[in-house]
Write a structure and sequence with these properties.
Protein name: 2,3-bisphosphoglycerate-dependent phosphoglycerate mutase
Number of helices: 8
Strand order of the largest sheet: 3-2-4-1-5-6
Largest sheet: 6 strands, mixed
Low-confidence stretches: none
Number of strands: 6
Catalytic activity: (2R)-2-phosphoglycerate = (2R)-3-phosphoglycerate
Organism: Bauldia litoralis
Radius of gyration: 16 Å
Bound molecules: 2-phosphoglyceric acid
Structural class: alpha/beta
Helix content: 40-55%
Distance between the termini: 26 Å
Number of domains: 1
CATH superfamily: Phosphoglycerate mutase-like
GO molecular function: phosphoglycerate mutase activity
Strand content: 5-15%
InterPro entries: His_Pase_superF_clade-1, His_PPase_superfam, PG/BPGM_mutase_AS, Phosphogly_mut1
């Protein structure tokens, strides 16, 4: 049985372009983001992948990315579940601030810790651990059963909600996850074993 799972970070958003902390703020894709989402869909099509169901967050940049990929794939009409559990990490008080301004104010190292560490919360926001505490149970209870039935699952979500998921799937340590960076629009393909462990992991460079 093909226990297929594909993860895709949304295409470039308006606030990625403006270099602003985004988190739960609901911003759209840029033209470049649309191009990236379509390219991801073409890549999945080129790999002859067939999906049975899709998941995305409650935020439009991920939802639009999913819609665009499905159009390119020619697989519109699939069930789509949209859930806050897959939302980006909540950046709290940093949301809407410019990342370079934040570095000037709090220092390079502190901002890097807020952005990439496992356990440190940005002021008023979620650590990656907090994000994982909602993403991982959602994956186990709602998403993984579809994968295990061989339905083929496509997820469009966010840099940090996917880092949290990948940390668990790949068994990364808190030190290792600091170095994990997810480009926009890059599909990451997993195939699972019968015992739910990872049989295959491949980045589908577009
Ligand atoms: O602003 C955000 O919400 C995220 C993703 O764009 O940024 P960062 O790379 O700092 O985690």
């Amino acid at each position: 049985m093909d226990r297929l799972l594909v993860l895709v970070r949304h295409g470039q958003s308006e606030w990625n372009l403006k270099n602003l902390f985004t988190g739960w703020r609901d911003v759209g894709l840029t033209d470049q983001g649309v191009i990236e989402a379509k390219a991801a869909g073409q890549k999945l099509k080129g790999e002859n992948l067939t999906f049975g169901t899709c998941f995305t967050s409650a935020l439009v940049r991920a939802q639009r990315t999913l819609d665009l990929m499905l159009e390119e794939l020619g697989q519109t009409g699939l069930p789509i579940t949209r859930d806050e559990a897959l939302n980006e990490r909540d950046y709290g008080d940093l949301s809407g601030l410019n990342k370079d301004d934040a570095r000037a104010k709090w220092g390079e190292e502190q901002v890097h810790i807020w952005r990439r560490s496992y356990a440190t919360q940005p002021p008023g926001g979620e650590s990656l651990r907090d994000t994982g505490a909602r993403v991982w149970p959602y994956y186990i209870h709602r998403i993984q059963p579809h994968v295990m039935r061989g339905e083929g699952v496509l997820i469009a979500a966010h840099g940090n909600s996917l880092r949290a998921l990948i940390m668990a799937l790949d068994g990364l340590t808190p030190d290792e996850v600091v170095k994990l960076e997810l480009p926009t629009g890059l599909p990451i393909l997993y195939r699972l074993n019968e015992d739910t462990s990872v049989a295959e992991r491949r980045e589908l460079a577009v």
